[in-house]
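Design request, tokens follow.
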């Protein structure tokens, strides 16, 4: 039995496209602002630690007690830890501004890829990303969220839905909105084709 050659594509025909691909670059200008904001408490707390620790004298004398000095040094430890923590966060945001390679979010039906420079690179497979809009949440999950009362069409158009993945440390939509530095409405519009693909593939019970 012969077959019509025109009924099947040639072997060298290009593969079908994998689906929509959305790229959202990280907002370096917003990262610089965050770096400056975080550097302020780091500098103030660090200055306080320098002043206090610089005046400590652990030698017992008429005007000072070694126990008092040690107690003051111990009381300042949380302040020093907060200064270091704030400084690390500030440095990471500044490094993101100066990062030599491209940083941002790439979303496709296959996966969600986050390349965030000093904040790390992670990839989440699209098959395990669950999508839920506010109107699909339970009463306990809504907990006064006014977006849940918006019409469904408005939620689809203006909101980035809740995006969950078993290996994600935080909700994915929060990470996307934090680093994209764009309005939620713009991000929702850009991601809509990919989100629709993730939503279609998830089990029915995960969308309700």
């Amino acid at each position: 039995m012969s077959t019509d050659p025109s009924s099947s594509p040639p072997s060298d025909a290009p593969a079908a496209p994998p689906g929509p691909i959305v790229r959202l670059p990280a907002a370096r200008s917003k990262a610089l602002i965050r770096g400056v904001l975080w550097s302020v408490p780091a500098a103030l707390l660090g200055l306080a630690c320098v002043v206090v620790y610089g005046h400590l004298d652990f030698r017992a004398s008429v005007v000072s007690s070694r126990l008092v000095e040690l107690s003051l040094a111990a009381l300042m430890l949380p302040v020093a830890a907060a200064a270091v923590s704030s400084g690390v966060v500030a440095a990471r945001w500044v490094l993101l501004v100066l990062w030599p390679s491209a940083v941002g979010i790439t979303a496709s039906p296959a996966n969600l890829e986050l390349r965030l420079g000093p904040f790390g690179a992670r990839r989440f497979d699209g098959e395990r990303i669950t999508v839920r809009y506010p109107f699909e949440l339970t009463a306990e999950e809504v907990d006064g969220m006014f977006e849940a009362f918006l019409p469904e069409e408005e939620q689809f158009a203006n909101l980035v839905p809740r995006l969950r993945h078993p290996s994600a440390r935080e909700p994915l939509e929060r990470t996307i909105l934090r680093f994209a530095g764009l309005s939620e409405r713009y991000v929702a519009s850009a991601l809509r084709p990919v989100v629709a693909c993730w939503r279609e593939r998830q089990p029915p019970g995960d969308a309700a």
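Comment from the thread starter after seeing the answer: thanks! The chain has two domains: 27-98, 102-208.
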